[in-house]
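sry for the spam today, last one i promise. struct tokens for design, 226 residues
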């Protein structure tokens, strides 16, 4: 094999290896936790939190798989399949990140003793994030105007390739797009840490004992419907 051909194939092979690692790790995790999912979700009364869990878990799985497969030779075509995988990776990310944020908002809301002010502030930021994500995908995920999906062939391998055309987004646009998501993440982190530390200190003053695991478990546990 010539050095030129080898240099062309190396990125394809590396991308395939990365794809296999990602898919293996994710599927392995899902298999390990599936029995607990049946016990705690499917065998319990159905709630809104159960529905959100299923959305986060399986839409997230779909997003990871489509994102990993996109650009690998495991999806060599046809063009319709490439377009479907690309669009799925775009839109499943929006649904996944929105649902995951809502779950975290409910956790922080519960940690703050169901403060309506806290809830509405977080929901407002989350709504801004959802609107910007949907707007981006609607504009730049449009195959007729801004998104181009093609099949690239290298030697005997082929893979999907996507790129923006006709006024692609700038760095400033990406920064504006990320701002609501970063703001929400920072707000959730600060509120959770502040309340956890505050309640831990209050508990220590009352009992003269540190119980650090109490509020960590409170953050991790499944929540009832608000």
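last one done:
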């Amino acid at each position: 094999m010539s050095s030129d051909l080898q240099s062309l194939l190396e990125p394809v092979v590396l991308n395939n290896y990365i794809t296999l690692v990602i898919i293996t790790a994710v599927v392995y995790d899902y298999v390990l936790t599936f029995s607990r999912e049946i016990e705690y979700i499917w065998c319990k009364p159905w709630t809104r939190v159960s529905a959100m869990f299923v959305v986060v878990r399986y839409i997230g799985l779909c997003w990871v798989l489509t994102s990993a497969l996109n650009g690998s030779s495991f999806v060599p075509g046809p063009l319709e399949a490439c377009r479907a995988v690309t669009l799925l990776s775009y839109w499943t990310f929006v649904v996944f990140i929105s649902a995951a944020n809502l779950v975290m908002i409910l956790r922080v809301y519960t940690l703050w003793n169901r403060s309506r002010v806290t809830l509405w502030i977080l929901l407002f930021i989350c709504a801004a994030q959802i609107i910007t994500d949907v707007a981006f995908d609607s504009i730049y995920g449009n195959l007729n105007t801004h998104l181009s999906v093609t099949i690239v062939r290298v030697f005997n391998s082929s893979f999907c390739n996507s790129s923006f055309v006709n006024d692609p987004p700038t760095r400033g646009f990406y920064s504006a797009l990320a701002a609501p998501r970063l703001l929400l993440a920072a707000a959730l982190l600060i509120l959770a840490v502040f309340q956890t530390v505050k309640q831990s200190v209050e508990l220590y003053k009352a009992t003269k004992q540190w119980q650090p695991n109490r509020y960590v478990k409170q953050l991790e546990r499944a929540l009832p419907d608000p």
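The longest strand covers residues 147-154. ok im logging off now
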